[in-house]
Specification:
By secondary structure, the protein is an alpha+beta fold. It contains 11 helices and 11 strands.
Length: 284
């Protein structure tokens, strides 16, 4: 059985079609289209894609581009071990640490966001690879962390699939994929005007069908999700920049400074600049 390994560097396949083992597709510096069993997915800096062992897929990369490849091919033993560590209880793992006999999962083929910790790991891997200073130990540790993060995202996605009230698994999975398409659209630009009709169109769903499914998947309405993400972005800017409250509100998609201040105060108990003073002061 092939060992787990990562491909680092410029893509060496301009076009590829076929089947392989479990893999995590990741790129920086552009977007790569993947067609997996008839469905099109775009993989770039902000997201990744997991492909199951034996699934037919195809992709193409541009001849001249700054793309950097972070694709990981996972052995079945690695997948079984990582999956068991996520789905089994702590007590079960302590009593019986053997994971080789665990059933292999059928993972959800849908783009998922790259977390901040994985972005940092990717950056470190890229710098070390380009400098020729990447050692085997640090590479193996980085691979393990990326796999764990990706499969935890898969576990969460499968829990979302189970929340959908449809008899066929394929129907439930498709609903989650379409909601995730809207989430990707929201995350790509929090400043733009985001209303229910637009997000439903992005997801190719009827408006109220989309509203129900979005809440099933995320536990929030689209409005609650967007507000939470905008406020989280505002927190980052308040902590890490000297921008005015008005400018931060504008960069986070709030209609005007009053709306931003009111929403922030409602969530945090303080207006934006008072919150900054309290938190930046406590941080130093």
């Amino acid at each position: 059985m092939a060992e787990t390994h990562i491909i680092l560097g410029a893509p060496f396949h301009r076009h590829w079609q076929g089947t392989a083992g479990y893999s995590i597709k990741g790129y920086a510096g552009g977007r790569v289209p993947f067609c997996v069993e008839g469905r099109l997915h775009f993989v770039g800096d902000a997201n990744f894609l997991v492909v199951n062992a034996g699934q037919e897929y195809e992709f193409s990369t541009p001849a001249e581009s700054p793309l950097f490849n972070f694709t990981i091919f996972m052995s079945e033993l690695e997948v079984a071990d990582a999956w068991a560590s996520i789905r089994r209880s702590e007590q079960s793992l302590l009593e019986d640490p053997e994971t080789n006999d665990q059933p292999l999962p059928e993972l959800l083929v849908a783009t998922m966001p790259v977390t901040e910790p994985v972005k940092q790991i990717r950056s470190q891997l890229r710098s070390a690879a380009l400098a020729g200073s990447l050692c085997a130990v640090s590479k193996a540790a980085a691979i393990s962390e990326i796999i764990d993060d990706a499969l935890r995202a898969q576990w969460q996605a499968m829990r979302q699939v189970r929340r959908i009230s449809a008899s066929r698994r394929s129907t439930r999975e498709e609903a989650v994929r379409r909601v995730r398409r809207a989430i990707d659209f929201i995350e790509s630009d929090l400043v733009r005007r985001l209303d229910l009709s637009l997000l439903a169109n992005v997801s190719c769903m009827a408006k109220y069908h989309f509203l129900r499914r979005f809440k099933d998947v995320t536990g929030e309405t689209p409005y609650q999700f967007i507000l939470r993400r905008r406020l989280a972005r505002a927190e980052e800017l308040l902590m890490n920049t000297d921008l005015s409250a008005a400018e931060i509100g504008r960069r986070c998609g709030f209609a005007d400074p009053t709306t931003f201040s009111s929403a922030f105060r409602s969530a945090h108990g303080l207006p934006p600049l008072a919150w900054r003073s309290a938190n930046v002061g406590s941080k130093s």
